[in-house]
TrEMBL record:
Transmembrane segments: 7-23, 29-45, 57-75, 81-104, 125-146, 158-178
Protein name stated in the entry: DNA gyrase subunit B
Keywords: Membrane, Transmembrane, Transmembrane helix
C-alpha cells in the first residue's frame, strides 16, 4: 500500500503542470483538484514519522500543495495553483543552501548513503555539486516566478511541465557522467 501511494504521489507530482493546465482550461476537470489535495494530504501523512531535511521538506511541500489545491477550490482562484513550482524551488534552494553552512552539504549526505567513506576529493566535489544545484534552483525558481507573474498558462505549462524537467534531467545526467569520469581518473 505504501509503495503504491508513493508511486501515485510521484506520478501526480510529475504530472502537476499538466493536471493544473487541465483544471484551469477545462472547468469540468476542477474536481481533480480535490483528488490532488487528498494525494498531498496522504503524502504528508506518510512522511509524518520520517526524519531528515528532505523528509521535512517533503512534508512541507505536501502541506503547501494541499493548501493550494483547497484554496483554489474554495476561493475559486485557480491561479494559486501556478505558485507550487515557485514554492518547490524556493524550498529546495533553502534545503541545499543551508546545508552548505550547517553540517554536511546535502549532496554529500546523499552520496554517503551509498559510499560512507568518501575521500576528501569526493567531499569537495559534493560541495560543488550542491552549489550547482543551488544555482539551478535560483534560475528555475526565477523563471517559474516569471511564468506566474505573466499569467500565461501555455508558457507556464511549457516551462514547468517540460523545459524545467528537461533541464533537471540534463543536470543530473551531466553530473552523473562527470562523476563517472572522475572515478575512472581516481
Amino acid at each position: 500500500m505504501r509503495a503504491a501511494l508513493r508511486l501515485l504521489n510521484g506520478i501526480a507530482l510529475l504530472a502537476w503542470p499538466l493536471l493544473v493546465w487541465l483544471a484551469l482550461t477545462y472547468p469540468h476537470w476542477r474536481t481533480l483538484l480535490l483528488v490532488l489535495a487528498v494525494l498531498f494530504v496522504l503524502r504528508g501523512w506518510s512522511l509524518r514519522k520520517s526524519h531528515g531535511a528532505l523528509a521535512r521538506g517533503g512534508l512541507l511541500l505536501a502541506l503547501v500543495g494541499s493548501l493550494l489545491c483547497l484554496a483554489s477550490l474554495v476561493l475559486r482562484q485557480q491561479h494559486l495553483l501556478l505558485w507550487y513550482p515557485v514554492v518547490v524551488n524556493a524550498l529546495m534552494l533553502l534545503l541545499f543552501g543551508t546545508s552548505l553552512w550547517r553540517g554536511m552539504p546535502l549532496v554529500e549526505r546523499i552520496a554517503r548513503l551509498r559510499e560512507p567513506q568518501l575521500p576528501p576529493r569526493a567531499v569537495r566535489y559534493t560541495r560543488h555539486v550542491t552549489q550547482v544545484w543551488c544555482l539551478f534552483f535560483v534560475f528555475n525558481g526565477s523563471v517559474a516566478l516569471m511564468t506566474c507573474l505573466r499569467a500565461d498558462l501555455a508558457l507556464w505549462t511549457l516551462w514547468n511541465g517540460c523545459i524545467s524537467y528537461l533541464l533537471m534531467g540534463m543536470l543530473m545526467g551531466g553530473e552523473w557522467l562527470l562523476r563517472q569520469r572522475m572515478r575512472k581518473q581516481a
